[in-house]
Amino acid sequence: QVQLVESGGGLVQPGGSLKLSCVASRSILSSFAMGWYRQAPGNQRELVAQITSGGTTNYADSVIGRFTISRDNAKNTVYLQMNSLKPEDTAVYYCKATNVWSARDYWGQGTQVTVSS
């Protein structure tokens, strides 16, 4: 079992930046692929970015060039740097960990990101 705790959300103006963090309760070194998802009211939860245990990344088309996912395995932490934020980025952002050996998914509680002027 692994627990995930997200932080770093808040209210920002369009064009602003936020950095989200996700801290895992156990080591994720070599064992977990990590991802960020988001869900706006009335919408399906969607993939924003993911990073494998080997460091390979991919992003939703809507965030390419603006968001960057990274991981620090020594700190059991995954980050999402969000730049040039747009109102349509407003959502609850969730961290996900996938055990690469069992394929089991673990989810964080979410952190609210609001982009508004």
Question: How does the SSE layout of this entry go?
Answer:
Layout: E1 4-7, E2 10-12, E3 18-24, E4 32-39, E5 46-51, E6 57-59, E7 67-72, E8 77-82, E9 91-99, E10 105-107, E11 111-115
Descriptive notes:
0% of the residues lie in helices and 51% in strands. The chain has 117 residues and is mainly beta. Strands 2, 4, 5, 6, 9, 10 and 11 form a 7-stranded mixed beta sheet that branches. It has a 4-stranded antiparallel beta sheet with strand order 1-3-8-7, with no helix packed on it. The protein is globular, with a radius of gyration of 13 Å. The relative contact order is 0.32. The model has no long low-confidence stretch (mean pLDDT 95).
Structure, briefly:
By secondary structure, the chain is mostly beta strands.
Keywords for this entry:
mainly beta; four-stranded antiparallel sheet; 11 strands; 51% strand
Binned, the helix content reads under 10%
State mean pLDDT (0 to 100 scale).
95
Strand fraction: over 45%
Task: Catalogue the unreliable spans.
Answer: none
Number of strands: 11
CA-based shape? globular
Query: What value does the Rg take, in angstroms?
Result: 13 Å
By secondary-structure content and strand pairing, the structural class works out as mainly beta
Number of helical stretches of at least 4 residues: 0
Order of helices and strands: EEEEEEEEEEE
Give the assembly state of these chains: single chain
